[in-house]
Amino acid sequence: MEFLGTRLDNPLVLASGVLGNSFDILRRVHENGCGLVTMKSIGPCPRDGHNNPTVIDLGYGLINAVGLPSPGYDHMEEEWQALAQRTFPVNASIYGGSVREFQTVAQYVSDQGPDFIEVNISCPNSEQHGMMFGINESSAHAVVSAVKKVSQVPVIAKLTPQAPDIGKIARACEDAGADAICAINTLGPGMLIDIESRTPVLAFKKGGLSGPMIKPVALRCVYEIFHAVSIPIIGLGGVSTGEDAVEMIMAGASLVGIGSAVLYRGMDVFDKVNRELDQWLASHDCRLSDIIGAAHKNEAETR
Ligand code: RRO
Fold first, then answer.
1. Which ligand 1 atom sits closest to the C-alpha of 67?
2. Which of 48, 120, 141, 206 is buried most deeply by CB count within 10 Å?
3. Helices 137-150 and 166-175 meet at what angle, rounded to 10?
4. Cβ count within 10 A of residue 271
5. 123 is catalytic
6. What are the pLDDT digits (tens) for 174-230?
């Protein structure tokens, strides 16, 4: 299949941040059936991230406040060399603390030749770098248009479910020139409390939620974005099985992201979900392209 001019083996995408930026690991993800791997968000300068604990498995999903750790875009020589020699499609995620920083990082990263740049305007774990850009139409527009001015590759805007009207944010990104939308980043932030020590469990106190519990929110967001824009959508949030992927595609996604399910089903979750998706399509005698946005077909009647 093709996505914005790049050939992909299949419609599955590794969500940003799940497996870091080691190209040995990203290559293994590809070998395990992932069509497009996304790098952990890359920032403007070296940043350690938050103290431990940063990720907790709740059993019904994860809560994380990793805190945007990054060596900084110009301290990643090893990764850029590996990127140049890769044999699989890569989506490079970036963040910044201002429109100017987003643009500086985007220009450098685009010159390294990834297949796509994903603009992270949706991280819930920093007051200065994250979803503040993604909950407001004019700042989302400003970031995406600044990145578009310098990027030589298609630009994907990654959105937050915290936006009061995610369709409007998606439209602002499309108007600014975004080539695709990716939704959703983690939900929240939420909090856990250790009742014995009477303190929040995460060192940063609050963190973004992921895993099966957020799938209904992700589906609603993708559904609303599909309504609002005509650019393609990468739908993610709580997808663990082929049937979850079918739901996401019917909401409006052209590609489907997988994040927390790597923990629950192993790195070969991509092979498993591809197989389950293919089986579902075969048993319903249809192709993936037949069901993109299928859940919208009776809209006129239900309104
Ligand atoms: O690093 C993080 O804490 C983080 C990021 Br950049 C993001 O976009 N989403 C998330 O849940 N965590």
1. 3
2. 120
3. 30
4. 17
5. yes
6. 999 999 999 999 998 999 999 999 999 999 999 999 999 999 999 999 999 999 999
